[in-house]
């Protein structure tokens, strides 16, 4: 495995890899000395886990949808032309006496127009400015004519109609906010998964270290016991017991190496990398005094829950329900539409008079429609929409209570684990010291083999207990970060450097 630069450069490289959509290799999560660190694995998972890639795509889609909406509110310029529009046919013509006569016509009716529109999001209206020119060539009569509007200002305003742009202006920024929070939550979920996988590797590697230590210690003790057995100082049973311990240590070592391989494969596959048999070597994180004394205020943590994507999605759902209620109210209610235009228009046999001497044009229309009998359709749809709003609010309250309960539970666990980890560390060190003393005492013949075996088992038991406490400690902290999306160690938003 190749070396990589220090952590700061690693984070920059990780961000670049994220932008280029490249894969994270196994070497990218290793430190310069080839050791896998928890923080580096969490950062790699937060950048390249599958759920993170999906969340990134959803965030990009939401941002592009908002960009498209904002672009749609800016002035728009369109060019439309029909060149040519030629047809030769016969058509019926009603004569003065009411009879029908068929005449052959041959025309080319071409037109071109330039239109500028501006959407008014607050009201749903549309302001337009256009210029248009139409030319008609009558080949049957060998004539031509022009009809043009040098300039025309139009205004269309649905007064009582549903206005989707007003709602999109509120919904689309919230949708982007939801996807931003969902991306951060996906990163935190990936970091939590990576923490679990990391401590699976730590546990397997610890079993391997215990087995190696026991094999080495038992080999030395067996050599000493063999000499003592020859001198008649110990029984054959003690010698066989040591030989059994040595064989068990060999077996445990093989089993532990298999577990390390499985844990290594799980980590690499989670990062999207193939496993080719390499065994990762973890660096078990320690609990510094800063972390042991880290005080996470419950009130502050609870306020951070407001940015959880689940709660933002509830707000989004309520707003969407209110939008649907407004649509039903207006689509099934009275309609009033205003259309107005003012401009210049002229038709002539030549082009020059159209622009030299145009005539005034004014158009105003106000249309309305009132539903008189709908057999309760509007009322039923309104009640359905209101029930959806109420359900969304109830689900929001329920989900908020669930998150607050989870956070309170994690905070209680965190406070307990801080004290438990201090005790577990002390007990582990004492058990290690006791085993070392017992080993020396047995070598000198001061204690029986059973006391040494008991001390060894007690050391292994407390070493595993310490590792489990350390696992619970870091998983609880990762769970707190996941719920609050906040980095309490550095007192900043979680994975702020990846944004």
Identify the notable features of this structure and list them briefly.
single chain, 499 residues, alpha+beta, Outer membrane efflux proteins (OEP), 2 domains, 7-stranded antiparallel β-sheet, two-stranded parallel sheet, 11 helices, 11 strands, elongated
The number of helical runs is 11
- Can you write the helix and strand succession as a string? HEHHEEEEEHHEHHHEHEHHEE
Q: In the CATH scheme, what's the topology name of the largest domain? A: Outer membrane efflux proteins (OEP)
Strand residue content: 15-25%
The beta-strand count equals: 11
The named CATH superfamily of the largest domain: Outer membrane efflux proteins (OEP)
Number of domains: 2
Mean pLDDT: 84
Major β-sheet profile: 7 strands, antiparallel
CATH architecture of the largest domain: Up-down Bundle
Rg on CA atoms, Å = 39 Å
Model regions low in confidence, pLDDT < 50 over at least 5 residues: 1-27
Globular, elongated, flat, extended or rod-shaped: what is the shape? elongated
Helix content: 55-70%
What is the level 1 CATH name of the largest domain?
A: Mainly Alpha
* Structural category: alpha+beta
Distance between the termini: 29 Å
């Amino acid at each position: 495995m190749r070396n990589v630069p220090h952590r700061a450069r690693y984070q920059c490289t990780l961000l670049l890899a994220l932008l280029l959509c490249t894969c994270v290799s196994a070497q990218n999560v290793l430190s310069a000395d080839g050791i896998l660190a928890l923080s580096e694995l969490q950062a790699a998972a937060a950048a390249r886990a599958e759920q993170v890639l999906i969340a990134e795509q959803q965030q990009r889609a939401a941002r592009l949808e908002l960009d498209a909406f904002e672009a749609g509110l800016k002035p728009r310029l369109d060019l439309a032309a029909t060149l040519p529009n030629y047809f030769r046919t016969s058509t019926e013509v009603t004569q003065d006496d009411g009879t029908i006569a068929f005449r052959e016509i041959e025309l080319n009716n071409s037109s071109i127009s330039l239109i500028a529109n501006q959407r008014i999001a607050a009201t749903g209206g549309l302001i337009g400015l256009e210029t248009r020119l139409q030319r008609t060539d009558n080949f049957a009569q060998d004539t031509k004519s022009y009809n043009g509007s040098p300039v025309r200002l139009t205004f269309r305003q649905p007064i009582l109609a549903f206005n989707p742009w007003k709602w999109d202006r509120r919904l689309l920024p919230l949708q982007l906010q939801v996807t931003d929070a969902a991306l951060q939550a996906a990163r935190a979920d990936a970091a939590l998964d990576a923490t679990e996988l990391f401590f699976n590797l730590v546990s397997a590697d610890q079993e391997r270290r215990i087995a190696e230590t026991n094999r080495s210690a038992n080999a030395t003790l067996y050599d000493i016991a063999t000499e003592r057995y020859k001198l008649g100082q110990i029984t054959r049973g003690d010698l066989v017991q040591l030989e059994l311990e040595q064989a068990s240590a060999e077996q445990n070592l093989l089993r532990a190496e298999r577990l390390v391989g499985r844990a290594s494969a799980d980590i690499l596959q989670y990062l999207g990398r193939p496993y080719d048999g390499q065994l990762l070597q973890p660096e078990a994180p320690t609990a510094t005094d800063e972390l042991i004394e880290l005080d996470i205020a419950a009130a502050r943590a609870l306020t951070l829950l407001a940015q959880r994507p689940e709660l933002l999605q509830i707000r989004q759902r309520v707003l969407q329900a209110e939008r649907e209620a407004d649509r039903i109210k207006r689509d099934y209610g009275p309609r009033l539409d205003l259309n107005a235009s003012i401009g210049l228009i002229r038709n002539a046999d030549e082009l020059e008079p159209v622009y030299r001497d145009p005539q005034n044009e004014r158009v105003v229309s106000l249309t309305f429609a009132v539903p008189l009998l709908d057999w309760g359709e509007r009322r039923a749809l309104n009640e359905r929409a209101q029930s959806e709003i109420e359900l969304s609010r109830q689900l929001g309250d329920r989900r908020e209570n669930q998150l607050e309960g989870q956070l309170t539970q994690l905070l209680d666990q965190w406070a307990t684990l801080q004290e438990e980890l201090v005790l577990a560390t002390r007990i582990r060190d004492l058990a290690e010291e006791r085993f070392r003393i017992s080993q020396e005492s047995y070598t000198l013949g001061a204690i029986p083999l059973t006391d040494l075996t008991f001390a060894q088992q007690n050391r292994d038991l407390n070493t595993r207990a310490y590792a489990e406490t350390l696992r619970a400690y870091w998983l609880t902290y990762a769970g707190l970060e996941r719920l609050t999306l906040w980095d309490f160690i550095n007192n900043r938003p979680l994975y702020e450097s990846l944004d």
